[in-house]
């Protein structure tokens, strides 16, 4: 299975930290955010990785190179300065991802999710990893009904930005900018999306304050 890290976001809420640095290259402790993900994927046995990039994207390529340093092969999907949003970015990268199911991970999260347990073949078109709702987003995104992900439910959870997708999810898409969420919601209505509830560590690094809290947590965990 191949994996893709989404690294094309502008990171407006992270300014001024992202004025000269792409958000996935920001450091949390001794490493860049994206390096934690790459190393976790390599440890889990992934050998082929696709990274999209847009804003200051050449920095991503310069820092990560071909992935040899991380024991993984990296290929890039450039999107220009404006980017293609999540759905459009994945769609453009499909020729690099191939015809089999693939894993996609947001480049601005930190997690200890064990990628070795990723479902290699989702039952439907997608399999999402859901987590507890963070304080800044208490309403959540989706709900679990057994193993099915549904749009509404008694207990809503947050989509972690980690999911396994079949290329067929994008069968009717056209090149250009578009979000992923409408595709997922449509597939949920057809019963084609499964999911799991992960209770481990997961951080969405959307603001400088959250990045600082992650750094403090990592320092405490190291002790």
From TrEMBL:
SUPFAM superfamilies: Nucleotide-diphospho-sugar transferases (SSF53448). GO terms for molecular function: nucleotidyltransferase activity. Pfam families: NTP_transferase (PF00483). It comes from the Bacteria. Residues 2-118 form the Nucleotidyl transferase domain. Keywords: Nucleotidyltransferase, Transferase. InterPro entries: GlmU-like, MurU, NTP_transferase_dom, Nucleotide-diphossugar_trans. Gene3D superfamilies: Spore Coat Polysaccharide Biosynthesis Protein SpsA, Chain A (3.90.550.10). This is Nucleotidyltransferase family protein. The lineage of its organism: Bacteria, Pseudomonadati, Pseudomonadota, Gammaproteobacteria, Chromatiales.
